[in-house]
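Hi P.,

Sorry for the delay on this. The queue was packed all week, but I finally got your sequence through. Input first:
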Amino acid sequence: MAFQDRDLACVECNQTFVFTADDQQYHSEKGYTNEPKRCPTCRASRRANRGFGGGGGGGGGFSSGPREMHPAVCAQCGKDTEVPFRPRGDRPVYCSDCFSQQRSGSGGGSYRY
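Then the structure:
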């Protein structure tokens, strides 16, 4: 498929930028279906402002110190534990050991996100 340079408008700065044929080829090879929304300058600025790690996974991007923990009783083994969310009572809460068993599928298979 022959690609041709295309002019696009950046959603951040409203400047026109060229989506080159080479860039389109790269996007196609990577399986990307959306064309870029930001010009190279705004993309670089956005990437730099996200900080380390590429903006994915881990602690959700928050660095405000340790998480607030809440007391709970494990629904599987009855052990006292602490969890990083406030238990609501309408769903089971597990200690880290039982949670790991639930995730690996050896705990009955009824666990869902």
